[in-house]
Design a protein that fits this description.
flat, mainly alpha, 2 helices
């Protein structure tokens, strides 16, 4: 369930909606992320741009 803080935030968004430029920016970032994910899944993403998972080293604490 939503807490009262989220209802206040929704009220503020209704009274003061974001500008068209802000909405376009958010949609542009989401579209770029979806494009990158799609290219990676289809195999068109270059290997040199793929991050490798690094495992924990045995005997070391922290990260």
């Amino acid at each position: 369930m939503l807490g009262p803080h989220w209802f206040l935030r929704m009220k503020r968004w209704v009274q003061h909606p974001p500008s068209g430029r802000r909405v376009a920016l958010v949609f542009g970032v989401v579209a770029a992320c979806l494009l990158i994910v799609t290219l990676e899944r289809l195999g068109y993403w270059p290997e040199w741009m793929t991050a490798e998972r690094v495992g924990r080293m045995p005997g070391r604490g922290g990260f």
